[in-house]
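As described in the Methods, two query proteins were run sequentially through the folding procedure within a single session, without resetting any intermediate state between them. The first query and its resulting structure tokens are shown here.
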Amino acid sequence: MNDFRYSWPMFNQIFRQAELMDRMMGCVGVNPAVAARVDEGAAWYEARTNCISCCHEHVCRNWLEYSERLPMPPDFCPNAEFFRSCAGQSSAGVARPQSVVQLEC
């Protein structure tokens, strides 16, 4: 029996958007462990929700694939402020767990 839930368009969109958020975080130097601890996880949840509902999926994908890499997220990103804050904390000497996999740009 096939599990029809995996063919739902919204299900696929959620995974596409989450993948873009993970790639963006890797490109701008955000440690996921640091991001997940901000505001006891509430900021991570809000950022993930922002990404899932973002209308800039194609622009984001193009930026990640073709644009010159910058150390900060692009202005069109609804999570740019959150990523900038987390990247600053990540580079400020916060220990990076060995099990965290960094996605390459």
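Immediately afterward, the second query was submitted; its sequence and tokens are:
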Amino acid sequence: MQMPLKPLRDASEDASARPSRGWRAGLVLVVAFVAVLLFWGWSRGSDARSLARMPPAERARLFQLTRDKAEALCGDRDLEDRCREEVELLSKFPECDAECRTFVARNLPSASR
């Protein structure tokens, strides 16, 4: 008894389909990564955008309150995390002059590797 022959699929069809799928998957990953980076960068600037839209008198009052709070928090080494948060916010105010930037630099931890 003789077995019927099955037609063989052309190997070149499978080989051409694989790189196309891999290329698409790679493109999707790259686009997703870029989208995440853009969102992260946009969200990091949200405080500065909000401050820029505030009326100047209100922003000046908020700046002074934030500065006073940062000075109080940064005086206590047990509150380093809260100090860093206030100092980071303080650095985003347009009112943060040279003296303020010196205070910010002195109270932000140096970058680690």
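Helices lie at 11-44, 46-53, 56-74, 80-90, 98-107. We note this only descriptively and draw no conclusion about the first query from it.
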